[in-house]
Amino acid sequence: MTESPDKKRDYVKFNGINFPQWKYAVMLKLRKKKLEAIVLGTETKPTQETLELVVDDVTSIVVTNQAIIDAWMERDVDACSIIFYNIEPTYQTSIEGSTTAHEMWTRLTLQYAEVSVANASLLLGKFHQYKMDPGIQNN
User: Fold this and answer.
1) Helix 19-32 vs helix 114-129: angle between axes, to the nearest 10 degrees?
2) What is the pLDDT of residues 41-54, one digit of tens each?
3) 3 close to 85: Cβ distance less than 8 angstroms
4) Nearest CA-CA partner of 120 in 14, 21, 15, 11
5) Residues 70/81, Cβ–Cβ less than 8 Å
6) pTM of the predicted model as reported, rounded to 2 decimal places
7) pLDDT tens digit sequence for 99-110
8) How many whole angstroms separate alpha carbon 84 and alpha carbon 76?
9) SS3 77
């Protein structure tokens, strides 16, 4: 079942600064719906298997696994929907044009995972530079 933009969610949308928490929450939802492998790229779209048929000197090529391909594509769209609709509109543009859920996930990870690490390092550095004001009483 495809995610809709107005569906109630149990966690916040990605807003540009909460990537680690959002990523964990979305991955839990994807796991629950058995879509994790598609998003991580370990379950890829099946390749077409064809069979050549000749009837009355007319050759036809028939795809023998089209139902499996269609099922994978439907699951991929479900995963894309979960990812896309759980991102604030401002940040949805960074994944528009993606053709698969794996491509969406890769784009987001490359763009925002390092930003989150950099922000954490910056905050840790500020914390270590913090000095207590001797004029403030600690009760």
Assistant:
1) 140
2) 999 999 999 999 98
3) yes
4) 21
5) no
6) 0.74
7) 999 999 999 999
8) 12
9) helix
